Amino acid sequence: MLVVNIYGLWGTIYSRFWTRGKQVLSQRHRRALLRKYWLQFIFRRVKVTLVFKEMDLSGYQTALEMNKALEDQYNERPDPVIPGRAEMRAQDDFVVSASHVHMDDAEVDPAIYQKVVDRLVKKYGVDRSTIDLDSDLVHQCGIDSLGMSEEVMWIGDTFSQDIDESAKLETVRDLVAAAQGYLAEVDTSHQKAKHVLPIWNAPRKARRFPDGAQTLFQAFLMTARYQGWDAAAMADERFGVLTYRQVLERVIMFARIIQKYPEDAIGVMLPASTMATITLFAILLSGKKAVLLNWTGGQKNLDHCIKMSGVHRIFSSDVFLDKANVPLSDVTAEMIVPLENMRSQVGISGLIMGKVLARMSPMVQWYFGTKAQSGDVAVILFTSGSEKAPKGVPLSHRNILSNVKGAMSAISGAAEGRLLGFLPVFHSFGLSLVTLLCLVGGVPTLFEADPKRFKHIVRQIKKWNIQMLPGTAGLITSILDAADQVGVEYLASLDVIMTGAQKTPQSLKDRITQTFRKKFVEGYGFTEGAPLVTMTRIGEPLIGVGRSIEGTEVLVVDIEAGLPVADGVQGRILVSGPGIFAGYLAGEKVSFINVAGKRYYMPGDLGFMTNGYLTITGRESRFGKDRSGEMINYTEIEDVLASAFPPLSDESGPRVAISAGKDRTDENKDPRIMLCTIDVAITVQMANAALKDAGLHRRSFVSCRIVLAEIPMLGGGMKVAHKSLPNPDTVDESVLEVA
């Protein structure tokens, strides 16, 4: 084997000697280094030497022995780079610096510990007799940095446990802790973090929607002028607090680069963050459309959405892609433009123009020649693909602004204050009720990139004095569970919790309003509606999913006749209003219908009205008919069984789902209803007993059961991917339990 040693680079501008090990530097850090060491960087030349050496590494039995030999041969030659400084020596080169997990011996699962030891003995040739919980993984077990990555993957595959990116593995005890789930989320509150500047909690004007704005960017400018350019606009732990003026400066700098691109649509693949928001508005200011890509639905769906939208350039982040482990095809990977590289393109002229134009805000759109109208497409989102392949949904400025205005009206009873947003911009709920409620609605927003760091989110609520918390029912439940562990006092500042995107169980509503004593708001909508359609109001009864938002009409009609039905009668839900999109990309068929001369969109949901309040009963596609023509509500069946057989833990997925036959040719037979479960202990008889106890008719009973390795979920982990469930009409009978 040929070994290459590099001598002379340590301590130069190309190493991390001057940055104290920090890998990615902020502009402020770079400027500080240049001011302090500019002579070293500009005038000092160093001699770099490459030494090629042939070594036979085949005789080493363990990685520990081989690493020691590599270190010894490197240290045979001194490596002085800067006079007066100690020689550079290779030592602990493979150590992953870490903070240890605190876990007593009594908490160690003997079975898991034994599996870990067996793994170390078999893969790394470690003497079993020398291993204990405090054995060092590097020096005693010989695991290098590559091996450490393999162990992280092994723990995920073997024990189905994720490991927090901040968690670091040094000892056998750490491996066992990770396998037992202790390192799924690590408390990093003791580490250096951004300070909450006084401006964040400073008094500000009451929320006010920018009436008269024709586009999202105009709405941002109007809100910034109303609140004051030096008022806090948004924040995250990476960039700290940004004022409206600082946001505009960054938008202008970025837009000057984007404007040079020839394409009309630019892809965005970023988590909830100040940078994602700045990128979105920079694309809009440059006169282009933002294509907000969902990376959680798998490589196939991602490639499908990219091809459909005609995107050739995608703004993302190398750090994010690595941390999120986003699977990319070769074609998609070539389209990625890392934001880390974009900063270097701004240049001095960009910095100057950004600051100058930001102080001449009325001239900004004239400078860029932006001529967008309210009816023009602003962003392209994609449906979740729960029942079919994702569809492209172009949303206009008018669509989205109407939603922000409706949301602001619905939360008018909430305390004026700050919001914590963790839903990404590709999520229609995250776009309208988080990202745009921030810059358009004037609500200071703290962005959190990882929605599953529940304890961290709880701590952030207290640290940043958060009043509003929007999210899906599942994520909100996990945050409240984390608060029970961290301390409910951390949620003291919260005034209102908002849910959407999935059905909110009554138990969660009661928990929010009764146990935690917080106000509760629930919304209903769909991507094609930008997404808000109805919302409960603070101070009003929590009936169904509330009343329609301003300017939007909800109508319930008979499925067969298409005529409006009376209150309390179930029917097909129709929606009309300024938030409804004009049509799908790629010529996909749109479900519009005319009633009494007015056009309505059919979202495919069923429900009923009660004095203006809408209650959802299920999906039209999730209904069937028995041989007598009576309707069977598959959603209702699934909801009953999900309640009877809930997840085994707060962080685990569902144990049951329902799949119904659609291809039966004999009209004299009832549709076959199949129970899909991951728990072999849940039998057909147990399921039907639960359905009977819930008062469901025999037509709703399951007729067979199949045991799956897991219930397939959509990429966001919020909804069951029903199209991925086995079809009871085509599944092999030998794997079924039949009633």
Q: Layout of SSEs?
A:
Elements: E1 2-7, H1 27-43, E2 49-54, H2 63-74, H3 110-124, H4 145-159, H5 172-179, H6 216-227, E3 232-236, E4 240-243, H7 244-258, E5 265-268, H8 274-285, E6 289-292, H9 299-309, E7 314-316, H10 318-324, H11 330-335, E8 336-338, H12 339-358, H13 364-368, E9 377-382, E10 392-396, H14 397-410, E11 419-421, H15 428-439, E12 445-447, H16 454-463, E13 468-471, H17 473-486, E14 496-499, H18 506-515, E15 519-525, E16 532-535, E17 547-548, E18 553-557, E19 571-576, E20 592-595, E21 598-601, E22 605-610, E23 613-619, E24 623-625, E25 631-633, H19 634-644, E26 656-660, E27 673-677, H20 684-693, E28 704-707, E29 737-738
Parallel strand pairs: 3-12, 5-6, 5-7, 6-9, 7-8, 11-12, 13-14, 14-15, 27-28
Antiparallel strand pairs: 1-2, 3-4, 9-10, 15-16, 16-17, 18-19, 19-22, 20-21, 22-23, 24-25, 26-27, 28-29
Explain the overall architecture.
The protein is α/β, with parallel strands linked by helices. Among the domains are: 2-74, no CATH class; 105-179, ACP-like (Non-ribosomal Peptide Synthetase Peptidyl Carrier Protein, Chain A, Orthogonal Bundle), CATH 1.10.1200; 223-396, Rossmann fold (3-Layer(aba) Sandwich); 541-620, Roll (Luciferase, domain 3), CATH 2.30.38; 626-738, 2-Layer Sandwich (GMP Synthetase, Chain A, domain 3), CATH 3.30.300. The chain is built from 20 helices and 29 strands. The chain has a six-stranded mixed β-sheet. Helix 7 (244-258) crosses helix 8 (274-285), helix 7 packs across helix 12 and helix 14 (397-410) packs across helix 15. The longest helix has 20 residues, at 339-358.
